[in-house]
């Protein structure tokens, strides 16, 4: 196989390295934010903060590993003035992301139930449906990414078919979360938290739709619209933006909603 | 010896790396979960959370080391399009797991006694029996794995004999844990915690039986049923699933049981 096709410019190499470093620094910083603000909320809301902490630890480790994988995969070639695949090194792989999402996705979906005030039978029903849809979405996407254009084993059909199956579960997640947010808003009738809690719905849609976008980005390379370098840089930027939106901003909005609800119920730290 | 037999495809190499990374990220994330939820339980149950923390730290370090051992052992060979044993590098070894289980196994078995409400003479009897059976199970398994097929010193007879001795202690552990869970359920008569606490028994059986399965997996390679690559990938996946089940999910179920019991006794954080 000819690895010489997989070169990246100095700028592209650095942008990806910087972006991944931003990513894990955001997770590390937010980890402390969620720990330190947990007790501003009533005990019944605190599990949302605990699950944000779980997600931050997982995302921190995964993005750090992604960064190490990126750095190890390339070496600077002074003759070409570019970064080339480092001989004998591990190839860069996005797969760390997918497997870590097996932790994050169920946790992100379950944590909102505590703030939305969903309990009893409905809680267990959502817990089960979120876990099943989330895990199946990720496993099928994980299998698909092995066939991504630009990888040694690239196979456009397999990549698209697995991506499509994953999308079916993705749509199921969107249907469920829309329902949960609607129920949560009903439970917050008359509360000032309703506004910020309701704003989670558009945030969720925007940040979660970035993931299938990033998955599909290498298709532009196959179609000759963009080159390898552009596809890989755009993919890493998109994944990082999606991670910050769907994990950190989402968790912070849930946390702020919980604090408002706690204060309205006479709780103070 | 001919190391060229021990090649792994890109996909197999990556699946193992991703899985081990998932493994230590789960342990790190759960470490924070057990710390942050400890005080939701009455003091008499908190030692269970503390022992979960001890197990998480041990498992986190061990799986991180397993991941480093895996990565260091192979190098990408562009000509073959595969990962091959890296020249002069340390060989991959599973032995880290066994020695760390000397910490985990006694802790996992002892922590349930606090939630099951077993005290006094019975507590000390189980503490002693769990420690002896657990440690002997691990030491004999550790000796056995040095003779595993696919290792340089492979010796089928020694591997099976030590594996058999280890299994005797394993059965002793299963007998003891079944008794403890039965007694715990009796102590929880009338409590809502009885359901989730009782569900620990099937979880324990399923997750613990994965270990002898993973130990024996290389036998399929010796019998020519599967190749080196399949055996090693299947073994790492099985060990990781077993670790998550027997340490994290088990600990979370004990923690949730403790919280329910604490609330029923009028405790709130």
Explain what the structure shows.
The structure is a homodimer of 269-residue chains. Chain A has nine helices and two strands; from the N terminus they run H-H-E-E-H-H-H-H-H-H-H. The first copy, chain A, has 269 residues and is mainly alpha-helical. Chain A has a single domain (3-264), classed as Up-down Bundle (Rhopdopsin 7-helix transmembrane proteins). The first copy, chain A, has a two-stranded antiparallel ribbon. In chain A, helix 5 (156-187) runs antiparallel to helix 7. The first copy, chain A, is elongated and about 70 Å long. The model of chain A has no long low-confidence stretch (mean pLDDT 94). Chains A and B meet through helix 2 and helix 3 of A and helix 1 and strand 1 of B.
Please give a handful of descriptors for the protein shown.
3% strand, two-stranded antiparallel sheet, homodimer, mainly alpha, Rhopdopsin 7-helix transmembrane proteins, 2 strands, 269 residues
